[in-house]
Amino acid sequence: MRLAAVDLGATSGRVMEAVVSVGTGADRLDLTEVHRFPNAGVPIGESLYWDVVGLHREVLAGLRTMARSGPVHGIGIDSWAIDYGLLDRDGSLIGNPHSHRDRRTDGVAGQVLEQVSAEEVYAVTGLQQLPFTTIYQLVASRGSAALEAAETMLLLPDLLGYWLTGEIGAERTNASTTGLFDVRSRTWASGLAERVGIPSAILPPLREPGERVGWVTPAVAVGLDLPQDVPVIAVGSHDTASAVVGVPAAQDQTFAYISSGTWSLVGLELERPVLTEAARAADFTNEGGVDGTIRFLRNVMGLWVLSECLRAWHEQGSGADLGTLLAAAADAPALRTVIDINDPSLLRPSTPGDRMPERLVELARRSGEPVPDDRATLVRSILDSLALAYRRTVRTAGQLAGLTVDVVHVVGGGSQNELLCQLTADACGLPVLAGPSEAAALGNVLVQARALHADLPDLAAMRALVRRTHSLRRHEPRSGLDWDAAESRLASTKDGSTP
Ligand code: ADP
Ligand code: LRH
């Protein structure tokens, strides 16, 4: 079968064509990029938005290209989590969806947690405290004309699916990231929503990955030159949920994963949430995965920091390409400058008046670390600091869940960063298996393929197919660098803002 995976990342979106066949003696899971387009927040005044209509246009362009060269048996959409659009009673989008990096949530989490204790919130949602979670975005817009006019809130993949099919709903893995979802009952936490002043009526009916969202509308079918019986299928519409489906883990190993893109999502796949006080204090999240699994993880600031440095240098007219910078970083002194890569000062986009490279220098200075004096040492400091955060997170996840991790799988665009993968292996003291870089698109099509009756009964079968069809790069941990000392240095300089 020939399937379209729409995978939207915060820095780039892509439409991928997958040809899947299983059980025929010649298993196939061929993925081809049909269309890739840049994505970024769009500033208007003090606000930061997504160009969601532009994303829809690019999705259509990719699907049209795919339709021209053969049949399309299914379409699945995943994107980054948390952000949403509001529909009015006519089903029209109200305003433009905000980016989670918008400033309007500043201070909101604190206000909400005065109303409902952090312990109580965690017992219901099981989520890490991220200042921009959907619940906080909606609280920030209480009293706004937009929220007053809203009939329905749609997370971004559900909004794009609605534009293709006319059907309204909320796919569960993504709903679980909103802070408005009960991780145990797996339904909307309507009581919590109402307590904080969010009308629970805007939360649409939930759907499972694998359910059919609907058929493409006649207008979409005509526009794309597709037949009208092409289904849009709900996948793990949270990109991280799809990426974890695409982790090529072997069944006999306990694996940690790093879904490494704009954000790095670092953790374990579990059968049940861990809602202990220790997990809350360590700020671990329990997001819902495909087939009722739990993604027990922490958000690490990720390659965002590096890509914002690249953007800042490019804007200043002295841009260098990523490969050249990584090669220079590989030769730079190791563990010279380590910083808390989760520092909140790194969350916002770089601007000409507040550039990411200078923020990093300032953070190093505040931490009493040697200040990076050129691009190579700055990039090295980002990578060393990411690896240190991965080590801390993998270890803490294992302790909190009572598991001994055998191997770390790195998937997503960042799995192509060989230096970072090697540093991760060194820091964690574990082998790292790197790839595939398009795990989210693979997870997306695997769930579609099962819904269309491919013989992929469970996650193990899906992962086995990825392993059989994709080659991975293995990094063995090396000794020689003192990660313990670096961690102690960091612990002694951290201001306590992140656990
Ligand atoms: P997202 O889906 O969040 O937009 P991706 O999974 O596409 O993110 O990952 C993007 C990141 O992957 C980039 O910021 C970059 O650091 C890294 N990356 C992409 N290609 C390469 C490459 N060839 N070598 C090293 N790193 C890469
Ligand atoms: C990664 C991701 C992550 C969310 C963030 C908003 O792309 O979906 O899992 O926390 O974006």
Automatic annotation (TrEMBL):
Residues 256-451 form the Carbohydrate kinase FGGY C-terminal domain. Residues 71-246 form the Carbohydrate kinase FGGY N-terminal domain. Residues 476-499 are annotated as: Disordered. Keywords: ATP-binding, Carbohydrate metabolism, Kinase, Nucleotide-binding, Rhamnose metabolism, Transferase, Xylose metabolism. Coiled coil: none annotated. Residues 490-499 have a biased composition (Polar residues). The keyword Transferase applies. GO terms for molecular function: ATP binding; rhamnulokinase activity. The keyword Chaperone does not apply. GO terms for biological process: D-xylose metabolic process; rhamnose catabolic process. CDD domains: ASKHA_NBD_FGGY_RhaB-like (cd07771). It holds the Pfam family FGGY_C. Belongs to the FGGY kinase family. This is Carbohydrate kinase. It comes from Intrasporangium oryzae NRRL B-24470.
